[in-house]
Amino acid sequence: MLISLETQNELFYDDNSGGFFATPSDSKDLILRLKDGMDSQEPSINGISANNLRRLATLLGDDEYQKRALATTSAFSAEILQHPFLFISMMPSIVTDNLGARSILMAGNPLDPAIEKQLSKVRSEGLHSDVDVIFVNMEKWEENDEGLRWLAERNPTVKAAAEYVRKHGKAFVEVCAAGRCEMVETAPKEGFDMGDVLEVLKGME
């Protein structure tokens, strides 16, 4: 996804006004390059792109992606104010721009019944639609997984979560919302209550 987005940024992103053109920068014989933000039978390219940028900003701790997400939705602000129902795919990014990103970072052993339960709970609650969930698989971490180590270099919190699990022998859970983060305490070799996580998340909104 990251490589595809970087290519998209290079070929389609409007550095002057924000948003993504429908045609690449190297297209020839074009009279006018257009940008489409309205949804039709499918979500708009700019709506999906804004959400991808926002999620990657959270995953990688990259402020530049967040700025581009904001610039993408801002490029259509006049139209959105007049006809918001035509820009539904942009709403998650717009809400995040105004209220801040919401995320849950968990680190632990994927075979731990408590971890399995919590990941299942996140999916069943539908949180993945508006809450970014990052799971650090400690088995892959111990195996020196290349992708996970790369992510840890981009996002220091991921590295800190893995080091916490190794040091304390218990799961790491951090909830972030409205520009601040709180750690949810867990007990060694005991499951943690997803209700605590949801309560923390709700209390931070």
How is this fold's topology laid out?
Blueprint (H helix, E strand, L loop, with lengths): L1 H11 L32 H16 L2 H12 L2 H6 L8 H9 L3 E6 L4 H12 L7 E6 H5 L3 H9 L1 H13 L3 E6 L2 E4 L10 H11 L1
Parallel strand pairs: 1-2
Antiparallel strand pairs: 1-3, 3-4
Helix pairs in contact: 2-3, 2-5, 8-9
Notes on the structure:
- It is built from 10 helices and 4 strands, in the order αααααβαβαααββα.
- It is an alpha+beta fold.
- α2 (45-60) crosses α5.
- The longest helix is centred in the N-terminal third of the chain and has 16 residues, at 45-60.
- The mean pLDDT is 85.
Task: Identify the notable features of this structure and list them briefly.
205 residues; 10 helices; Glutaredoxin; 4-stranded mixed beta sheet; 51% helix
Based on secondary structure, the structural category is alpha+beta
Mean model confidence by pLDDT: 85
What is the radius of gyration? 19 Å
Helix content: 40-55%
Number of domains: 2
Low-confidence stretches: none
Q: Tell me about the largest β-sheet.
A: 4 strands, mixed
Task: Briefly characterize the structure.
The protein is an alpha+beta fold. It has helices at about 1-10, 45-60, 65-75, 75-80, 90-100, 115-125, 140, 145-155, 155-170, 195-205; strands at about 105-110, 130-135, 170-175, 180-185.
